[in-house]
Amino acid sequence: MSLLEMTGSLKGRDFLSLKDYTSEEIVFLLDFADYLKGKVKKGEPHELLKGKTLGLIFQKSSTRTRVSFEVGMIQLGGYPLFLSATDLQMGRGEPIRDTARVLSRYLDGVMIRTYSHDDVEELATYASIPIINGLTDALHPCQVLADLQTIREHKGHNLKGVKLAYIGDGNNMAHSLMIGGAKMGMEIVIASPGGYEPEENWVQVAKSIAKDTGGKIIVTPDIDVASSQADVLYADVWASMGQEEEMSERKKHLSQYQINEELLKKAAKDVIVMHCLPAHRGEEITEDVIEGKHSVVFDEAEDRLHAQKAILANLL
Ligand code: CP
Ligand code: NVA
C-alpha cells in the first residue's frame, strides 16, 4: 500500500506502546515521518491538522518532548495547549477518569508525560480521543519511533539483524528499545548490572514479538558481549526522572556501564552512538564520544519532531 492509501488507517488509535502497533504500521509511520521531514526541509506547507487541538499534560520536566510536540502541532496547522499537571485539577486529586472524559469534549488528542504507566492506560480507557504516551516510568515509545527513523537514516531501511547495544539502567528506554527493536527484527542487547536489569514482563513482551519477526532480545551484565560488533550503541542516564535521590547508590553499581572510547573499539567500525538526552557527560557517556564522529544524538533529537508529527497526522 502507498503512503496515501494507508493514511487514515490509524485514525482514532492511542499511542501508548509500540507493542500495540504491527511491524507494518511502524514502518508506515517511519515512512510518513520521512515524508514530513522532506516537507520541512523543502519548506513546503503540510497543514494536515488544520483547526485541531492537542493537549500536552506534563507531570515531569521536558525539553525535547514539549518543544517538538508544540512545534509539530503548529507546523501541521493545529494548536497545542501546554497543561502543567500542577495547574490542572488533576494535580489536586480530580480523578483521571473524569479528566479524560472532560478533555475529550474539548480536544482532538492528548499527550501525557507522567510517572505511572497505569495512569496513562486509565486515561486512554476513559478518553474518546487518541492518547499519546510522552514517557512513563515504564515506556518512552515516541522516543523509540524517532530512534528507529534515525537508525534507518544511518543504517538503511531494512533494520532486520541490525544490532543495538543499550548500556546502562534497565529503564523505560531499555523497555521501549526492546519492544520497538523486536518489531523491526533487530538484535537488541541490554547490558545492565544486577539489580538494574529491565523488568521481566517487558523482556517477555519483547521476546514474544521477536519470535514472530526474527528479532533477538538479550539481557546480560556483560558490556563487552553487548558492544561486540554492535551497529548502534545506546546510552541513557543512570538515574531517571523521579530517581534523583538514588543517584549516589546508582553510581556505585552503574559506573562501569559507560559508553567511552574503549567500548567504541569493540563495536562495528561504522557504529553510531545514540542517547535520548538529556546526557550526563562523564557518567553514562564520555564527552569525547558524545561529541565524536560516531555520535548522531542531534539527528536523533531532530527526528522527535518528524516522528511525532507522523503520529499526530495519522491518529488525529
Ligand atoms: N528525550 C526526551 O524525551 O527528552 P525530554 O525529557 O527533554 O523531553
Ligand atoms: N530514562 C530517562 C529518559 C529521559 C528522556 C527518564 O525517564 O528520565
List keywords for this structure.
Rossmann fold, 44% helix, 316 residues, alpha/beta, binds norvaline, 13 helices, 2 domains, binds phosphoric acid mono(formamide)ester, 4-stranded parallel sheet, globular, 5-stranded parallel sheet
> What do the pLDDT scores average to?
97
The CATH superfamily of the largest domain appears as: Aspartate/ornithine carbamoyltransferase
User: Rough shape?
Assistant: globular
Q: What is the CATH architecture assignment of the largest domain?
A: 3-Layer(aba) Sandwich
Structural class: alpha/beta
- Which small molecules are bound? phosphoric acid mono(formamide)ester, norvaline
Number of helices: 13
Distance between the termini: 21 Å
Beta strand %: 5-15%
Rounded to an integer in angstroms, the radius of gyration calculated over CA atoms is: 19 Å
Percent in helix: 40-55%
Helix-strand pattern: HHEHEHEHEHEHEHEHEHHEHH
How many domains, as an integer? 2
Largest sheet, described in full? 5 strands, parallel
What ranges have pLDDT less than 50 throughout 5 or more consecutive residues?
Answer: none
Biggest sheet strand line-up: 7-6-5-8-9
